[in-house]
Structures are given as structure tokens and as C-alpha cells.
Amino acid sequence: MKKTVVISALAAALTCAGAVGPAGADPVDEQLTIDGEAMITRAKAPEGHPFDEVLSGWLFRTVETRALETDSFTNPGMLEVETGEALWNKVEGTAGKSCASCHGDAAESMKGVAAHYPKWDPETKRPINIELQINKCREKNMGAEPYAFDKGGQKPLTAYIKHQSLGMPVSLDLSEGDMQSWWDKGKERYYLRTGQLNLSCASCHEVSMGKMIRADHLSQGQINGFPTYRLKQGHLISVHNRFRGCIRDTRASYPKAFSDELMALEVYVTWRGTGLSVETPAVRQ
């Protein structure tokens, strides 16, 4: 049994790294529309990008999975977005406030906001993502307890806020504060090989992009649709959960969520999707 597991793990590592030729499969040439609104699923890559064109993960999914994302009524992730809307209006904490108390109608105040996160936070002198911004507001403005990672309302509220930017192109300002150095750290982490399988993010999402590994079609690993509804788990998955899951799958220990290492990675990977529409909540297998 142990021998079989080792051989299987080695085969997976070699396949993902390109040493064993996995089957090729091109992304589909189709237009994603959500509730009739066209999404940007192909965009010219920014200068310094390893690809000429950035591609949404939607283009790599099966016809059935792609169909789920085209209609908010059929998208299972929208149930948690509705939960997020209720949390947006829920009064919590010693200040007796909700998110809406300060920000009003999210459809107006949050439109376009998530397309430009992570941003530089001058107070903490590090990048801040939507999840950390929510916690900062809860503590400072509401007098409420911050959400623990992936607990309570963190995922649905994050999804609700990001959903207000649906269709808007991702764009980061790397000139803010020290964002460029965090981008540099994130790039280094992206190409760092880890674990017993000796794999990096790039091993699958750059070197083997477009190829089939077992039943999975390897995409560019874009994160413009997170939190994403994954059919295999049956609920929303946060981007730091996915980062940690990928690192775990290389048979390596993984960093804490929102650690400097993973925040840097989020900055870099978000930049790799520059120009793609926010798809939250995307649907993947």
C-alpha cells in the first residue's frame, strides 16, 4: 500500500511538472455572461507577465460547471452571497452599528472596490485584503469581534462585498506604499518549489497550464472569482484556503492565513489576473 501511494505521488509530481506528458486541452472559445452581462475572461497581460494573455478559470471548466455561473439563480454560491447581504445589515458590537450604518447601500458604495484589493494599509504598513478590511472595520468602527479565518460570516460577507464589483476589471496600484516589494515577495513565493513533490504554483499554473492532470484541466490559477463555490466541497472557498490547500498538496507545511507570506502571494497572484472581470462567486469543480 505504501509503495502504491509513493508511486502515485511521484507520478502526480512528474505530470504537473511536465516530465510526464499530460494530455493537452485548450480553453474553450466562449463568452461568459452572467445574468446577461458580458464578463472579461481574456485580457492582454500586463508588462512583465509570463503569458501574453490572461485567462479566466471559467474557460477551463466543463460545460456543466460553466453553465452554473451564467445565471445567479443557478449559481449555488449566491446563497452565501445572500447570507452576506444579511450580515451587511446586521447590527453588532458595542457601537451599535452595521456595515450599512457607515457604507449605506453596498450596490453603490462597494461597486468597484474589490477590483482594486489588496491595497496598501498605511496603518499596518502591509497589504490589506477584503477579509482583513472587514475585521478592521468590525473592531474600530463597530466595536465587534473580528472574524476568525473562514469562520462566522467572513466568507459570505467577503463574497457579498466582492459581488458588488461583478464584471469590473481587476487592477492593483503597485505604487501605493511598499506594495511593489510585497509583489516581489509574492513572485518569489509563486516560483518556490516546496514539499515532497517539489512543486511550485508555477509548476501547474504556468508550465502545465492548459494540460489535463487526471480529470482536472489546469488553468492559470486566477483568483478573480474568489470566494469561489467549489462543487467538490459544496461551499465557498476563500483564496487563502486555496493557497494553503495547494501548498498542502505538495506535501509541505503551509503558512497561516493572512501571514506575510500568503498576503504577498495574494498581491502577486491578483496582479497576474489584471484585466479579468471580478466573477465572485465563481463556480469551479
What characteristics describe this protein?
285 residues; two-stranded antiparallel sheet; three-stranded mixed sheet; 2 domains; globular; alpha+beta; Cytochrome Bc1 Complex, Chain D, domain 2; 11 strands; 38% helix; disordered N terminus
Description:
The protein is an alpha+beta fold and 285 residues long. Helix content is 38%, strand content 10%. The strands form 5 sheets. Strands 10-9-11 form a 3-stranded mixed β-sheet. It has a two-stranded antiparallel sheet with strand order 1-2. A two-stranded antiparallel ribbon has the order 3-4. A hairpin with an 8-residue loop joins strand 3 and strand 4 (53-55). The longest helix has 16 residues, at 2-17. The protein is globular, with a radius of gyration of 19 Å.
Tell me the domain tally. Answer: 2
In the CATH hierarchy, the third-tier topology of the largest domain is known as Cytochrome Bc1 Complex, Chain D, domain 2
Main beta sheet: 3 strands, mixed
Which strands sit side by side, in order, in the main sheet? 10-9-11
Backbone CA Rg? 19 Å
- How widely separated are the two ends? 28 Å
Oligomer category: single chain
- Rounded average pLDDT: 92
Shape designation:
globular
The SS-based structural class is: alpha+beta
List the helices and strands and how they pair.
Blueprint: H1 2-17, E1 33-34, E2 37-38, E3 42-44, E4 53-55, H2 63-69, H3 78-88, H4 99-103, H5 106-109, E5 119-121, E6 126-128, H6 130-142, H7 154-163, H8 179-190, H9 201-207, E7 212-213, E8 216-217, E9 228-230, E10 235-237, H10 239-249, H11 260-272, E11 283-284
Parallel strand pairs: 9-11
Antiparallel strand pairs: 1-2, 3-4, 5-6, 7-8, 9-10
